[in-house]
């Protein structure tokens, strides 16, 4: 399996080379030259545990890794660091299935890929005889940063620097990042929003002179954002695992189609579901759920991607994004893998802030449905599900739940098709919003985020299966280790200082 850039079909890299580079020199993203089919039937794979299934799926994309190398990476990634042996369990509530992707060490779905990426990267470096230290540069809207640092902390021959928008993440997310231990990590808050941080990182990647200067000093850049194919491939696994769980528990028969709803920001998570579907997973609709930053909703409805709109800070901050980087991969697929056409769209996005796809490309979006939820919709959904079922969901999951319910009521998605919702974060990570939604009488204004977590613990049923995660316990008394704050134009200089 070789990988080319979405902006240059002539470029051919192995999987390990693509993982090492992260982003192509032309600014494009790496994509497999073909989407493979499952090597075994879904009923066969339903008998596998998560690690066995991960190997079965990932070996199809990462075929220059030996079996020993890949199984070694998987074994290190998915074990006691997760608080459940299922790794990604399914919970049934309110007539749908919630795929809980928050049982890893940082209680967000990013752990599903970022616990394995450091092992894939260091293995790839050895395979390709890389002598330089690998420097991970990452922008985060809240969850990627902590998950990346937790994965890379003190990993030999690596360094990681994370940029996050000042005031644009929850306090728990901020505390998780600024208390991160590790001699090779740095965290920086930036004046601006997530898109500013992400654009700044891309500019550094595309600064060839700066990269050459650092390579001469023994450093090589790579990325832990979902633009890295090493992040995207592991995410395919949990959608297949969800379907296999339904098969194993006799909830569906093999071949029965399901709908998958994903709360979406940077488009990587739902793109993994799209790849799973194209590998052979029986999916009727992929539901792209947005918050008030609904640039993707408009794109799927009218074919125009337009980031020229107000940016909203919401209670679901990991989705507060107007430039969804991974959409470039979908654009590439639906325009018939035309790299020059994809490049033109992305250049228009940079220069004009928008582009419009043609009617033939729109046909490639037929498997998608899209919608968005307001802040009031999100709060109401949290309360409704808790009142009706006792199940507690986080704000991002609530966006997906609300959007899927609206689309079902409109007949866009059929009620009789089993629905799997990607539950992307623990409610403990957004306790203030959860408690305020469930109990409007809570005196939230006079309590800090950790006190709001205490309030959430009073709400969650005592016999429930959601005790306070270790990730929350760890930040209660942790020391602040990172306090760098910069303007948006100071990112390159900050990287240089870090690498001194």
Structure notes:
By secondary structure, the chain is α/β, with parallel strands linked by helices. The protein has a domain of 258 residues: Rossmann fold (3-Layer(aba) Sandwich). Helices cover 43% and strands 16% of the residues. The protein contains 22 helices and 16 strands. The strands form four sheets. A six-stranded mixed beta sheet has the order 4-5-15-10-11-14, sandwiched between helices. Strands 9-6-7-8-16 form a five-stranded parallel beta sheet, with helices on both faces. Strand 1 and strand 2 form a beta hairpin. Helix 1 packs across helix 6, helix 4 runs antiparallel to helix 6 and helix 17 packs across helix 18.
Give the overall average pLDDT. Answer: 95
Distance between the termini: 38 Å
The DSSP helix count reads: 22
Beta-strand percentage range: 15-25%
CATH topology of the domain at 90-108 and 230-468: Rossmann fold
CATH class of the domain at 90-108 and 230-468: Alpha Beta
- Main beta-sheet strand count, sense and barrel state: 6 strands, mixed
What is the fold's blueprint, element by element?
Elements: E1 2-5, E2 8-14, H1 15-21, E3 30-32, H2 42-45, H3 50-61, H4 67-77, E4 90-93, E5 96-100, H5 111-114, H6 117-127, E6 133-139, H7 144-152, E7 158-165, H8 171-178, E8 185-190, H9 194-205, H10 208-216, E9 219-222, H11 229-248, E10 258-263, H12 268-279, E11 283-290, H13 295-302, E12 304-306, H14 327-334, H15 339-351, E13 354-356, H16 359-362, E14 368-372, H17 375-389, H18 395-409, E15 419-423, H19 431-438, H20 449-459, H21 470-476, E16 484-486, H22 491-499
Parallel strand pairs: 5-15, 6-7, 6-9, 7-8, 8-16, 10-11, 10-15, 11-14
Antiparallel strand pairs: 1-2, 1-3, 4-5, 12-13
Helix pairs in contact: 1-6, 3-4, 3-11, 4-6, 11-12, 17-18, 17-19, 19-20
């Amino acid at each position: 399996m070789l990988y080319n850039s979405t902006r240059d079909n002539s470029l051919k890299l192995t999987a390990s080379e693509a993982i090492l580079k992260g982003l192509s020199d032309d600014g494009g993203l790496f994509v497999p030259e073909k989407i493979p089919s499952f090597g075994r039937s879904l009923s066969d794979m339903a008998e596998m545990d998560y690690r066995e299934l991960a190997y079965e799926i990932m070996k199809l994309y990462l075929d220059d890794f030996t079996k020993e190398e890949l199984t070694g990476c998987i074994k290190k990634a998915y074990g006691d660091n997760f608080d459940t042996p299922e790794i990604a369990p399914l919970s049934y509530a309110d007539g749908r299935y919630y795929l809980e992707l928050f049982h890893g060490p940082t209680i967000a779905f990013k752990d599903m890929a970022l616990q394995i990426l450091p092992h894939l990267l260091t293995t790839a470096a050895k395979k390709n005889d890389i002598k330089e230290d690998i420097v991970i540069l990452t922008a985060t809207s809240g969850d990627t940063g902590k998950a990346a640092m937790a994965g890379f902390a003190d990993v030999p021959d690596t360094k990681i620097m994370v940029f996050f928008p000042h005031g644009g993440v929850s306090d728990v997310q901020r505390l998780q990042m600024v208390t991160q231990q590790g001699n090779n990590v740095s965290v920086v808050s930036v004046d601006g929003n997530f898109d500013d941080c992400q654009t700044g990182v891309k500019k550094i990647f595309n600064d060839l002179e700066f990269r050459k200067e650092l390579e001469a000093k023994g450093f090589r850049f790579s990325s832990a954002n979902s633009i890295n194919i090493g992040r995207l491939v592991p995410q395919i696994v949990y959608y297949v695992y969800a379907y296999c769980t339904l098969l194993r528990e006799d909830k569906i028969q093999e071949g029965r189609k399901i709908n998958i709803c994903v709360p979406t920001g940077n488009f990587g998570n739902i793109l993994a579901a799209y790849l799973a579907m194209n590998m052979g997973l029986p999916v009727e609709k992929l539901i792209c759920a947005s918050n008030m930053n609904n640039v993707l909703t408009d794109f799927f409805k009218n074919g125009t991607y337009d980031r020229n709109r107000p940016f909203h800070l919401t209670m679901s901050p990991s989705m507060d994004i107007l430039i969804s980087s991974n959409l470039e991969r979908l654009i590439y697929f639906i325009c018939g893998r035309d790299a020059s056409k994809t490049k033109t769209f992305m250049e228009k996005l940079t220069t004009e802030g928008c582009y419009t796809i043609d009617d033939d490309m729109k046909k490639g979006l037929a498997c998608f449905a899209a919608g968005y939820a307001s802040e009031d919709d999100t709060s109401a959904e949290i309360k409704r599900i808790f009142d009706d079922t006792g199940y507690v969901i986080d704000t991002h999951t609530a966006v997906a739940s609300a959007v899927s319910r609206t689309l079902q009521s409109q007949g866009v998605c059929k009620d009789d098709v089993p629905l799997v919702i990607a539950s992307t974060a623990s409610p403990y990570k957004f306790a203030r919003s959860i408690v305020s939604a469930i109990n409007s009488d809570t005196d939230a204004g006079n309590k800090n985020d950790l006190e709001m977590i205490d309030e959430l613990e009073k709400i969650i049923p005592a016999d429930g299966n959601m005790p306070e995660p270790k990730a929350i316990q760890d930040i209660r008394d942790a020391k602040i280790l990172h306090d760098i704050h910069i303007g948006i134009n100071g990112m390159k200089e900050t990287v240089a200082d870090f690498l001194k």
